[in-house]
Amino acid sequence: METSTWSERSQGENAVTGSILETVFPPNSLLSRPLNVKVRGSGIISVINEQDESGFCPFSNKGGTATSRPLPGGRFFYFLMRLKEVYTVRERLEALKAEALEELEQIGQTAQVQELRVKYLGKKGLLTEILRGMGKLSAEERPVIGQLGNEVRSAIESKLEEKKEAAERAEIEAKLASESIDVTLPGRMVHVGNRHPLTLVTEQIEDIFLGMGFTVAEGPEIETDYYNFETLNLPKNHPARDMQDSFYITEEILLRTHTSPVQVRTMEKMKGKVPVKVICPGRVYRRDNDDATHSHVFNQVEGLMVGENVRMSDLKGVLLNFARQMFGEGTEIRLRPSFFPFTEPSAEVDVSCSMCGGKGCRVCKHTGWLEILGSGMVHPRVLEMAGYDPEKYTGFAFGMGIDRIAMLKYGIDDIRHFYTNDVRFLKQFNRV
Ligand code: PHE
Known about the structure:
By secondary structure, the protein is an alpha+beta fold. It is built from 13 helices and 14 strands.
């Protein structure tokens, strides 16, 4: 129901003196129902517009925009007659068809197609609405109008179908376009990492010793004072503890300063059985100021062999074999007397300089030799504390610096390269 439109229209220059008492508009479209208008002007004019049986509206002026009626007293009543929009059923059907096709032409989405299907052809749609008026038609007219109704329905239907297909196609195409893969894009490089030089060298060392019948053992990096020092014949306040400035966590717990505690841990696990033949690679920590040859974290490989008649010459033979596999066939080793609280006798082991072949160069500081490890015969007290009878068994042990060996092997001049993780440095080892 609408009641205001016309009285607004009647304002202004051609203002009516009359007022519209009542207009009855269809809720959605002027097309769906005859329009009843009651107008009363100055109490004189009364227009009651009714559609008659055939759909003809006697008062409508279908072509014009206004119907004017002289008022007594010479004034004109301007009635902008929307009554022109009161149609016969036939006209309304044709108008509906035109309107539907036109509206369908504008849209492009499947949801809109569905919306318009409901609007025009639905149970409460506009076509049904019009056809409901057929009851008022004459018996001759009814089949004609009925057929027309069907034609309109099928025209709208086929347009709906066409639009639906087009919309679906467009939607699929849009989806495909948005999900498409640009095969002309260059591929992304997959960067395959490589092993760290320290890992490479550790693995080489392991391989060599595995070849000599050793197995690999590991121990904790956070170690007790007991294993790191005491069982290695380094009691509290022993001056040799100064050789290894330590990171203490508590009085009794520290970051291990060497891999030697794994010697003891291994012997304890073996419970007096022989032979013991292990190497123990791993990280160790010392309170050093970092420079080109010192790092507060570095890596060692411990070696331990315990059994009957294990002698210094066995140590020498094992290390010579190792040095030649590691640095080349012509490599020589030499043992220099040294001191470690946990070995007796003790020796520092040098390898002939792989850079100059022993002639003397900058790397070996013109000595022809490079120091790579500390070693010795396991101290009887260490054997004893670990549960081995020193009268029956002997053993040798050594500890080498992996970083130093890697530096010698690859000609690296600064130990800090191993720990600063500069990929330009690290990726040079991808073919090693
Ligand atoms: N643990 C000693 C160090 O770190 C090396 C070593 C190991 C010496 C085994 C003798 C025997 O200096």
